[in-house]
Amino acid sequence: MSREGSLEAPTRHPLNWQDEKFYDKEDLFKELERVYDICHGCRRCVSLCHAFPTLFDLVDESDTFEVDGVAKDDYWKVVDHCYLCDLCFLTKCPYVPPHEWDLDFPHVMLRAKAVKFREEGATFRDKLLSSTDTIGKLAGIPVVAGIVNSVNKNSSTRKLIENTLGVDARAKLPEYHSSTLRKRLSKNDSAQGEEAGPTKGKVALFATCYGNYNAPSSGEDLKAVFEHNEIPVTLLEKEQCCGMPKLELGDLEAVAAAKEVNIPAMVKMVDAGWDLVAPVPSCVLMFKQELPLMFPDDADVAKVAEAMFDPFEYLMLRHKHGKLKTDFKQPLGKVAWHVACHQRVQRIGPKTRELLELIPDTSVDTIERCSGHDGTYAVKKEFHDVSMKIARPVAKKVTQSEADHYTSDCVMAAQHISNTLADDGDPEHPISLIRKAYGI
């Protein structure tokens, strides 16, 4: 069979999730068998995550040593280990569209998750862990926040939670803040910005669930850095979870419901001349890629995708046009920077590293390996050991670098690396390091 087209840039087909054939289990399993057979014959992605070793072990332990010898029920074991990082599609696979084999492993996994969710629903734990807004609002109540944080650090209560909910007692859980980011930042919808290249020079911040409830200080640091560069920052009128946790669960209707809240609020700001920024790579990717693939004919979704930027992408675009201040006052020394998977697949380049390297007497050790966290994967009892195994090479590189700081644009990945290092301290967000370097 010809491999013509394999050297062309990868392209994604829209996710045909509203077609009933998408949920046809028999048709799904035919596609799973086809995809698994191609992956088995290639094995190029074996080091990316645990989905591929799981598949290859199933094949190697079967009677035929081929995919046809694997029990269909065992196909789900592969699906369960895929957390939709998209790296196989964008960095490894030679058979993605426009190749005639038309292989999109993440989308096949997403389809399988959606079929399983429609047929079986989800466990209480999985529904709870993916309901980030609900957890944040409850855990963020002033008295409740303190109790939740204490419970999450207590070994006895964590063991009880593990036995009842299946949340691994060894997993590092985030703290909750009653003083959320949206409470800390004020709206300033009348500010003026100076255009530079594709940027309008003023941004509406999508706080994100994690940034709002768990890491509000990084959002404050983002605002300080942007405003130091004369880029006004305001908040969206309202927001809901971007939908990524529900997407990974296969609950596509919940993703659509979140879109109906977020997109109108974002379009309102874009129409008023604001760009959009979010501090968490997964949320940026949701609006840049996942929603456009789910709603390819929605003009408002396309408008938001066009206006959405990673924070460091935005700042480096400003730098390209002479609009970034480089009046750094404090060197950072050596920084070990873990590249978040959902930042890599945005295809924007290593903008975080580029900005950090503008700081005098600062060098960056780049770590391009998955941390194994995936939002909820690492905290689940059945996956925690695997997630730690995936994270160990990252932690080893952090240790070997003897860096003054270690960081990741994905705060959850950074926390997982910290857990793997058995580090009691908290890693620093890259935007917080930039604020420190500016001395503001």
Q: Provide the helix percentage.
A: 40-55%
Question: Major β-sheet, in short?
Answer: 4 strands, parallel
Please give the oligomerization state of what you see: single chain
Given as residue ranges, the uncertain stretches (5+ residues, pLDDT < 50) are: 1-5
Description:
The protein is α/β, with parallel strands linked by helices. It has 4 domains: 20-120; 124-165, no CATH class; 181-316, no CATH class; 326-438, 3-Layer(aba) Sandwich (Rossmann fold), CATH 3.40.50. 50% of the residues lie in helices and 6% in strands. The protein contains 22 helices and 7 strands. It has helices spanning 25-42, 51-60, 75-80, 87-92, 105-120, 124-129, 132-139, 142-153, 155-165, 181-184, 209-214, 216-228, 244-249, 252-271, 281-294, 299-307, 311-320, 341-344, 351-356, 384-401, 411-420, 430-438; strands at residues 203-205, 233-235, 275-277, 308-309, 333-338, 362-367, 405-408. The strands form 2 sheets. The protein has a 4-stranded parallel β-sheet with strand order 2-1-3-4. A 3-stranded parallel β-sheet has the order 6-5-7. α15 (281-294) packs antiparallel against α16. The longest helix has 20 residues, at 252-271. It is globular and about 65 Å long. The chain starts with 24 loop residues before the first helix and ends with a helix. Residues 1-5 have low confidence and may be disordered.
